[in-house]
Amino acid sequence: MIRSETKIRVRYGETDQMGYVYYGVYAQYYEVGRVDAMRSLGFSYKQIEEKGLLMPVIDFSISYKKPAFYDDEITVVTYVRDKPLGVRIIFEYECFNQAGELLNTGKVTLVMIEKVTNKMCKIPDWFQNAFNAFF
Amino acid sequence: MIRSETKIRVRYGETDQMGYVYYGVYAQYYEVGRVDAMRSLGFSYKQIEEKGLLMPVIDFSISYKKPAFYDDEITVVTYVRDKPLGVRIIFEYECFNQAGELLNTGKVTLVMIEKVTNKMCKIPDWFQNAFNAFF
Amino acid sequence: MIRSETKIRVRYGETDQMGYVYYGVYAQYYEVGRVDAMRSLGFSYKQIEEKGLLMPVIDFSISYKKPAFYDDEITVVTYVRDKPLGVRIIFEYECFNQAGELLNTGKVTLVMIEKVTNKMCKIPDWFQNAFNAFF
Amino acid sequence: MIRSETKIRVRYGETDQMGYVYYGVYAQYYEVGRVDAMRSLGFSYKQIEEKGLLMPVIDFSISYKKPAFYDDEITVVTYVRDKPLGVRIIFEYECFNQAGELLNTGKVTLVMIEKVTNKMCKIPDWFQNAFNAFF
Question: Residues C16, C59, C71, C72: which is the catalytic one?
Fold first, then answer.
C-alpha cells in the first residue's frame, strides 16, 4: 500500500458564503494529494505528460463529514491500496483538519491515455514498477 | 419526478492544460443545475438561506464519460427522482455537450441545517410541498 | 467603439465567507464578457486558437465599488474603445448588478501570440477588419 | 518596509488550455501572500474577522511578464512599502518561478470595514502598531 500526507492551508477564495470550504474545492485538494503521492514514488505527474501520456479522472466520489474553514490546515491522506491494473489507478482519500477531525473521505479513479491517439493505454512498466515496490 | 435543464457555456478559466474542463468544475455546474431546478419550483436557494436554513452537500459522486472543451455549450439535466425525505434531498445529473453526447452522470445529496443551531433539521413543509406537486 | 453586454448569474461557489463574490472571480466574468464581444463581431475566441494564435492577458486592473452577492444577475459591459493596434487589444469593463448599481470597472490588455513560435505577432487582417467596421 | 516570501506549487486545476496558469488565479496567490505577510507580524487575517472587521479588496492590478506552468514552484514576494494609513493598506507583489524569472508584478489595496455597520473604519491601533515596528 502507498500512503502519503499533504498539508494544505485553506485559502479565503476557497470558502463560500456559508463559511465552509466549497464542496467542489476538494477535487483540487485531492489532485494535490495524488501528485504528492506520485512524487514520493520518484516521479512527477508533469513527467507523465512529458512522456506523451495523460491521466484524466473517470470517477470521483466524496463523502463530507465536517466542513473545513478558512485558514484551517488540512491534511490530505492519499492511499493507493491496490497495484495499478491495466489502464486504471485508484486513489483513496481522507482529509483531516488541524484538530485531527475527519472532514471527508473520497475516491478518484484515473485512466491512462496516449496523447497522440487519444486512446486508453496500458500503464507502462516504469510506472507500474514504481508502484510495485510498495505492494 | 422533477427534471430541469440548464445551459452553461464553458469558460476558458475552467479548462486545464489537457484542454478538458477540469474535473472539479462540474461541482459548480451541478450547483447551478440544482439551483435552477429549485427556481422552477418557485423559490430560490437564496431564499432558503434567508429563512435561516443552509443546505450543505454531504455526498457527491460523478462518472466522467467524455470531456467537455472550451466554449462548449453544456446542458446540465437535473433530476429529483424521490420526494425529499426527512433531512435530505438527492439531485441526480446528466451533462451533455452541444452534439448531444453524454459527458458525465452524477449525484449530489444535500442535507438541511438550521443556521443558528448548526444542526440538521427536518425539511420544512413549504419546501416539501413545493416538491410534492411533482410526485 | 464596440460595446457588448453579457448577463452572468453569480454561483454559490463564487462567493467567499464575507458573502461577497471573491475578488478574483471577476477575471472570469471579464473573460466571458470579451468572448461575447468578439462573438458579436462574428468570430469566437475558440476560432482564434484554431488558427494557431493565442491571446494571453498581459495587463489586468480592476476597481471595486460595491460587492456582488450570491444569485445576483450581473451585467458585464465590455468596451473596445480603440482599434486593436500592432500586437495588442484593450478591453474595458463595467459590471452592474440587477439594481443597476455599478460594481466595478476594469481594463484587460491582451497580446496576440503565434502558438508555434511562442512569439508576439501582428494582429492579422481578418481580425483587424472585423473590428474596423465599428470605428 | 515589510517583505515576506511564500512558496506556492501550481495545481493542475489552475492551468488553462494554453498550458498557462489562468490569469485570474494570481488573485488567490496574492491573497495567500498577504495573509502570510500578516502572519509574520504576529496575527492572522482570520483573527481580524473574529474581531468584527473585514478587509475587502478595492483595487487590484497585475502586469504579466511570463506565464507560470503546471507544477512550477512560485515564490510570491509581498511588500508593504508604506504604513497603513486611515482606512486602507496597500500590498505590492512580485512573483517568480523556480528559475528566478519574474512572472508578474501587482498591487492590491484593501480597506477596513466594520462587519456590523458595513462601513469603512479607521485601522485599529493594534493593527497599526504591528506594522509600525517595521517602518
Answer: C16
Facing residue for D57 by CB, picked from C23, C31, C54: C23
Domains with residue ranges and CATH for chain B: 2-132 (3.10.129.10)
* Per-residue pLDDT tens listing for chain A (135 residues): 999 999 999 999 999 999 999 999 999 999 999 999 999 998 899 999 999 999 999 999 999 999 999 999 999 999 999 998 899 999 999 999 999 999 999 999 999 999 999 999 999 999 999 988 888
Q: What is the 3-state secondary structure (H, E, C) of chain B?
A: CEEEEEEEECCHHHECCCCEECHHHHHHHHHHHHHHHHHCCCCCHHHHHHCCEECCEEEEEEEECCCCECCCEEEEEEEECCCCECCEEEEEEEEECCCCCEEEEEEEEEECEECCCCEECCCCHHHHHHHHCCC
Which residues in chain B are contacts of D17 at CB distance < 8 A? 12, 15-19, 70
Q: CA–CA separation, C43 vs C38, rounded Å? A: 6
Residue C85 confidence class, pLDDT cut points 50, 70, 90: confident
Q: Are strands B102-111 and B113-114 parallel, antiparallel or unpaired?
A: unpaired
Flag residues of chain B having pLDDT under 70. none
CB pair distance less than 8 Å for B28 and A23: no
Query: How many angstroms separate the CA atoms of C17 and B54, rounded?
Result: 14
Q: Is A56 on the interface with B (CB under 8 A)?
A: yes
In contact, B64 and B122? CB cutoff 8 Å: no
Q: Give catalytic residues of A, as residue numbers.
A: 16
pTM over 0.95: yes
Other Cβ atoms less than 10 A from the Cβ of D43: the count is 14
Strand partners, A98: none
CA distance, residue D83 to nearest chain A CA (Å):
24
Identity of the residue in A22, A31, A58 whose CB atom sits nearest the CB atom of B64: A58
Please report the pLDDT score of residue B133 as a whole number: 85
C129 touches chain B (CB under 8 A): no
Q: Please report residues of D whose CB lies closer than 8 A to that of B17.
A: 12, 15-19, 70
